[in-house]
């Protein structure tokens, strides 16, 4: 609780927290949607925002507000899958490479570094084309997860490398503690803050990539996400035709999400960094 | 101490605290708590104390470098500049900066952090000296630096190498030579030999003494190692929980310590040829954020009396050079 | 003679560099010594002399390049962990990093008791822990539920010793155990070593650069220089009458807490450490005040004089006579 109170002292944390709560409520509302998001022409087309259709309707005959609730939910699911799965990979790779060292470390870090240097975007385009048939939220999330762990695994590895040299590691070994227990009990608490802040970063990275892939048409356009909404809006040239409510809804929502996640991560990592924390709580 | 010796640095009831705001609760760390010192020209003054007794903070305060969260709460700090006593706490940042290196210089404990690892030693010299020597060109700066380095018996090519090429002891000696290069009147050393091996430490101490002899200036040196103090210091101040509890010439401190804490410190030191049992001071040092009432040493003191728990004793002048803050002495 | 631990010609080599240029550094070079039961044996020397590497090899945290280790006359195989099989425990230099700041201190005690199956019930466990803590002047109550930050350095070092005592070790390896403890509390740790030796019969390998406490506490001492033991014997013989020029230098360089014993002469400092390791012949020849021609080419043999082992050419004739 103390931690939360301190965090809320930062206006960036407070704002981003409120925005994320708002977005979470929106995603939750999708369960009460009166319409099936995959069906077209359930409402009149191209209506301006009004009392009946809060954010208007689109050229597919779908209600934009309810469509947006699904889009937010699905984008969050993708980013959560990507974030959580890549965290698991990053922790495993980072801990094993850091603790074992030697050739295991070299091989794992070679794979990681390769992922860092190759242009990932091209790979995603290629993979998305190959996986077209089975593309859904889970496959997209997993695909992003498989390529989004390398940098964070490196961070965790370097942390474990320095923890391994601390005397308390030896104390634990001399107390008869096994390797697995040692890593989980002694090292995990130190890496938790790092894991948490990289999770947020990875999530916003995943949302961004999903939007990019959807705009160039490499996502399953039947599943509403922030990216596919944008794709449809662009496809029907909503800007040209002055249907601003259609294009603006996903743009504003994704902007809000990016800024909120970014501020959240900055604020938390500043809080976790002892040097900046002193500045913040003030002298 | 001869009468003629001038006071070069004087503090008057100096108080410098760290004021921290931790999770909403205010925490005050009383690191320098009412310290009155007179340090003379041409002497090595040793400050002895354990970790967490405030000795590094005292040094920073004496160096007139107080950065938040540290704050000067009360008291005055005077330097004698051109035979005039100046209250340096009121100087502007620019005036403070001018005094550094030229009037007062600082020798840190870890010499690696002084030198930029990617430029040669002479680059660091140029940065440090160049900002203080107006209107002199590079050649002049290097001439000064080379002279000092040769005077101190260091190899002359040290200016042309990178910091990592020097051994720890050599690096520390180069740091000291750098601190001495503008003939400062006061040099302040914070555990300058602690991280070094004993043989190297001996070389560095030798060099510090050489510098002091050559420049006839003042060296204020903090270390927890009483052996080092016995070897270099002319006078020693014993610091405990932010206060100077005893001050005397080195011989007096070692032969007739009067404060119980000093007595413990001296008597607990093992000596060659004497295997008789030595005892530690009972208990643990207090936290500077949560000091006991009265004399801060009273919870560990074997001679504790009621008054010790209530009131901090005044500093008693035993003779011209020997000062003690203890009720045992006050009442005797 | 009973030997609790015997090191026989231990060698540790590190190779640096890559496939094309390799440099081999011998950090520990033919080190032999033994420790008797209920004895405090000091390994003294400056940083980089190989004393910590030797300790790590005994504990099994460093591989032994060559040589043998015997525990109670039994050869230790490289895969055996000394702390599991031979009752060897260790304490470290920095009491603040000995325990994980995020874990309660008593959890280490419970875990050790559990891992080594030292007690069955919860009550037995606590009794066992309490008994060991009382040996260092603390109780279970003092430690239970507390984090390392709640103790002073001296207390933590005593807790660390109590943890090492849990498994009833025969040998405790103490690597610079007092160099980071406050001066006023230092002797309480050193006195504890004496107590453990005299009352429990525990042997201690005391690794230090502080010859004054080494003299105070230990029975025998070995002075190491650049990977080699240059002098070994009882502390009285080695420290009160050092024979090897390096032992003399080291002994004289300890700042004595007595203003009457200030240094009067000057010292020559080492060239680069690395060069001394690479030196042929005696590694101290570069700054030895009594250097002879033979020192620069021939490695001096171990010479025994009055039960003291000295590695110096100065005493070759004495040994022959």
Would you write up a description of this structure?
The complex is a heterotrimer of chains A (283), B (332) and C (321). With 283 residues, chain A is mostly helical. Helix content of chain A is 73%, strand content 0%. Chain A contains 12 helices and no strands. Chain A has helices at residues 2-8, 11-29, 64-100, 102-117, 120-130, 137-147, 150-164, 167-174, 179-215, 226-235, 244-272, 274-281. The radius of gyration of chain A is 22 Å and the shape is elongated. In chain A, 39% of the residues are buried. The model of chain A is unreliable at 278-283 (pLDDT under 50). Chain B has 332 residues and is an alpha/beta fold. Chain B has helices spanning 55-62, 93-99, 121-130, 138-151, 168-180, 198-215, 226-232, 250-255, 260-267, 306-310, 327-331, and strands spanning 7-22, 25-40, 44-48, 70-81, 84-87, 104-107, 186-190, 218-223, 235-240, 243-249, 316-319, 322-324. In chain B, strand 7, helix 6 and strand 8 (218-223) form a beta-alpha-beta unit. The two termini of chain B are 26 Å apart. Chain C has 321 residues and is an alpha/beta fold. Chain C has one domain (5-87, 169-320): Rossmann fold, CATH 3.40.50. Helices cover 34% and strands 24% of the residues of chain C. Chain C has helices at 51-59, 82-85, 95-98, 105-115, 122-135, 140-143, 153-165, 183-200, 211-217, 235-240, 245-253, 273-278, 316-320; strands spanning 5-17, 22-35, 40-44, 66-71, 74-75, 88-91, 171-175, 203-208, 220-225, 228-234, 302-305, 308-311. Chain C has an 8-stranded mixed sheet with strand order 6-7-8-3-9-10-12-11, with helices on both faces. In chain C, strands 2-1-4-5 form a 4-stranded antiparallel sheet. In chain C, helix 8 (183-200) links the parallel strand 7 (171-175) and strand 8 (203-208). In chain C, helix 4 packs across helix 5 (122-135) and helix 5 (122-135) packs across helix 7 (153-165). The longest helix of chain C has 18 residues, at 183-200. The radius of gyration of chain C is 21 Å and the shape is globular. Chain C starts with a strand and ends with a helix. The relative contact order of chain C is 0.13. The chains are: A mainly alpha (283), B alpha/beta (332), C alpha/beta (321). Chains in contact: A-B, A-C, B-C. Chain B binds chain C through residues 50-51, 167, 169-170, 197-203, 205-206, 224-228, 230-231, 250-251, 254, 261, 264-266, 268-273, 275, 277-281, 284-285, and chain C through 46-47, 152-155, 182-188, 190-191, 209, 211-213, 215-216, 239-240, 249-251, 253-263, 266-267, 269-270, 272-273.
């Amino acid at each position: 609780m103390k931690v939360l109170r301190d965090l809320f002292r930062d206006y960036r944390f407070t704002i981003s927290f409120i925005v994320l709560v708002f977005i979470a409520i929106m995603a939750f509302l999708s369960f009460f949607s009166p319409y099936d998001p995959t069906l077209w022409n359930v409402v009149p087309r191209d209506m301006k925002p009004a009392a009946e259709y809060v954010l208007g309707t689109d050229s597919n005959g779908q209600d934009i507000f309810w469509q947006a609730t699904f889009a937010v939910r699905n984008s969050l699911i993708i980013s959560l899958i990507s974030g959580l799965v890549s965290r698991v990979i990053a922790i495993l790779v980072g801990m094993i490479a850091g603790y074992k060292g030697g050739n295991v470390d070299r091989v794992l870090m070679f794979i990681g570094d390769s992922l860092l240097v190759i242009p990932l975007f091209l790979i995603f385009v290629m993979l998305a084309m190959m996986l077209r048939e089975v593309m859904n939220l889970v496959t997209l999330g997993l695909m992003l997860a498989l390529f989004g762990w390398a940098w964070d695994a490196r961070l965790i590895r370097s942390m474990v490398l320095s923890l391994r040299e601390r005397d308390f590691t030896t104390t634990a070994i001399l107390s008869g503690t096994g390797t697995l227990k040692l890593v989980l009990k002694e090292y995990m608490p130190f890496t938790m803050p790092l894991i948490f802040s990289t999770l947020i970063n990875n999530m916003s990275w995943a949302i961004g990539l999903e939007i990019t892939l959807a705009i160039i048409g490499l996502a399953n356009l039947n599943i509403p996400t922030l990216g596919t909404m944008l794709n449809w809006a662009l496809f029907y040239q909503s800007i040209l035709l002055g249907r601003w409510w259609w294009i603006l809804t996903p743009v504003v929502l994704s902007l809000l999400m990016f800024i909120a996640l970014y501020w959240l991560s900055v604020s938390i990592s500043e809080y976790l960094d002892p040097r900046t924390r002193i500045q913040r709580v003030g002298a | 101490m001869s009468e003629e010796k001038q006071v070069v640095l004087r503090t008057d009831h100096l108080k410098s605290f760290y004021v921290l705001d931790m999770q909403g609760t205010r925490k005050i760390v009383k690191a320098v708590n009412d310290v009155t010192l007179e340090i003379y020209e041409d002497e090595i003054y040793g400050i002895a104390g354990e970790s967490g007794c405030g000795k590094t903070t005292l040094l920073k305060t004496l160096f007139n470098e107080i950065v938040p969260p540290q704050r000067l709460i009360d008291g005055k700090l005077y330097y004698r500049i051109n035979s005039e006593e100046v209250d340096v706490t009121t100087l502007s940042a620019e005036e403070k900066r001018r005094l550094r290196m030229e009037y007062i210089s600082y020798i840190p404990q870890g010499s690696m952090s002084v030198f930029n690892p990617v430029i040669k030693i002479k680059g660091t010299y140029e940065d440090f000296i160049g900002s203080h020597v107006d209107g002199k060109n590079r050649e002049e700066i290097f001439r000064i630096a080379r002279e000092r380095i040769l005077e101190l018996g260091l190899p002359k090519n040290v200016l042309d190498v990178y910091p990592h090429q020097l051994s720890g002891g050599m690096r520390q000696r180069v740091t000291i030579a750098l601190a001495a290069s503008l003939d400062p009147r006061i040099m302040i050393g914070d555990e300058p030999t602690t991280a070094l091996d004993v043989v190297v430490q001996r070389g560095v101490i030798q060099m510090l003494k050489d510098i002091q002899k050559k420049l006839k200036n003042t060296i204020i040196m903090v270390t927890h190692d009483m052996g080092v103090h016995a070897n270099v210091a002319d006078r020693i101040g014993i610091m405990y929980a932010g206060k100077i509890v005893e001050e005397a010439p080195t011989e007096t401190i070692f032969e007739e310590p009067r404060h119980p804490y000093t007595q413990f410190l001296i008597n607990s030191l093992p000596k060659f040829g004497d295997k008789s049992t030595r005892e530690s001071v009972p208990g643990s040092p207090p936290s500077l954020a949560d000091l006991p009432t009265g004399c801060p040493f009273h919870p560990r003191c074997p001679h504790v009396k009621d008054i010790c728990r209530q009131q901090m004793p005044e500093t008693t002048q035993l003779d011209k050079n020997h000062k003690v803050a203890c009720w045992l002495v006050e009442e005797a | 003679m009973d030997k609790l631990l015997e090191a026989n010609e231990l060698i540790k080599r590190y190779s640096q560099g890559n496939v094309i240029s390799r440099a081999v550094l011998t950090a520990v070079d033919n080190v032999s010594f033994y420790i008797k039961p209920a004895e405090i044996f000091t390994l003294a020397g400056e940083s980089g002399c190989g004393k910590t590497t030797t300790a790590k090899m005994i504990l099994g945290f460093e591989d032994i390049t060559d040589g043998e280790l015997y525990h109670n006359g039994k050869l230790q195989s490289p895969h055996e962990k000394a702390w599991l099989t031979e009752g060897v425990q260790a304490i470290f230099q920095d009491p603040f990093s000995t325990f994980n700041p995020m874990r309660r201190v008593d959890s280490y005690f419970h875990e050790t008791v559990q891992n080594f199956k030292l007690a069955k019930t919860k009550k037995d466990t606590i009794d066992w822990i309490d008994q060991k803590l009382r040996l260092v002047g603390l109780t279970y109550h003092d430690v239970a539920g507390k984090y390392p930050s709640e103790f002073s350095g001296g207390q933590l070092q005593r807790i660390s010793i109590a943890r090492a005592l849990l498994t009833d070790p025969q040998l405790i390896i103490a690597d610079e155990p007092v160099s980071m403890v406050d001066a006023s509390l230092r002797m309480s740790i050193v006195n504890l070593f004496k107590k453990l030796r005299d009352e429990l019969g525990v042997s201690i390998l005391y690794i230090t650069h502080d010859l004054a406490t080494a003299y105070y506490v230990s029975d025998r001492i070995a002075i190491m220089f650049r990977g080699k033991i240059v002098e070994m014997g009882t502390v009285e013989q080695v420290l009160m009458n050092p024979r090897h020029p390096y032992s003399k230098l080291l002994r004289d360089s300890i700042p004595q807490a007595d203003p009457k014993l200030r240094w009067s002469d000057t010292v020559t400092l080492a060239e680069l450490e690395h060069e001394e390791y690479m030196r042929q012949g005696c590694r101290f020849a570069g700054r030895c005040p009594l250097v002879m021609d033979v020192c620069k080419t021939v490695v001096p043999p171990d010479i025994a004089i009055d039960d003291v082992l000295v590695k110096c050419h100065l005493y070759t004739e004495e040994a022959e006579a």
